[in-house]
Amino acid sequence: MSVSRKRKKELEKLQKQANQLWETQQVLVGEAASVAREASRQLGHFGREQVKPQVQAGYEKYAAPYVEKGKKVVSSTVIPAAGAVVGSALSVWDAANDTRAHLAGGHGLERPDPKKYGKKADKYAREASRYLSARLDRAAPQKKGIGAGGVIAIILGVAAAVGVLYAAWQTLRADDELWVADDPLRAPDA
């Protein structure tokens, strides 16, 4: 199949246009890549200069108090309980060692003395609790002053007192504008 000269010229012209379009697209893609690199760099600067300080401030304002409360809970309840558990575990270990030594001496099995091992368990629990509490007391300074709960309680107490005083004032005041209808079924004339 042969192509006429006219069609051949049109095809060549179309080929040139397609090549020009391809070249301009390549330039455009190159420029878009440089714009994307610059946008990425600017986004990094924005994150460091704007977002990070706001996130840090939000953490300090909202999350840090709860983290501190969590530390207090851990130091006041979890650590003493863990001390008791560690003390009990050490007393069981000690009892097992005593039994093992007794058996190794050829004395056989006998009933363990519950008072003896109870005293040991209490002793280990007290020592572990004392040790862990002392370490935590040195690590965290004690807070002095009224807390948020105290402030809220004072505000609620003042609000309740104001409400009672307002209700008493409304009850006891003389109001000249009080209106009592003569006929309770008829609406007043306006």
Summary tags:
mainly alpha; 3 helices; flat; 190 residues; 79% helix
Polypeptide structure, described:
This protein is mostly helical. It has three helices and no strands. It has helices at about 5-105, 115-140, 150-170. Helix 1 crosses helix 2 (about 115-140). The protein is flat. The model has no long low-confidence stretch (mean pLDDT about 80).
State the low-pLDDT regions, or none.
none
Helix content estimate: over 70%
Largest sheet: none
- The number of distinct β-strands equals 0
Please state the overall shape, judged from the principal axes of the Cα atoms: flat
Distance between the termini: 102 Å
Radius of gyration: 42 Å
Total helices: the number is 3
Structural class, judged by helices and strands? mainly alpha
Describe the structure concisely.
It contains 3 helices and no strands. It is an all-alpha fold and 190 residues long. The chain is flat and about 115 Å long.
Secondary structure blueprint with pairings:
Layout: H1 5-104, H2 114-139, H3 148-172
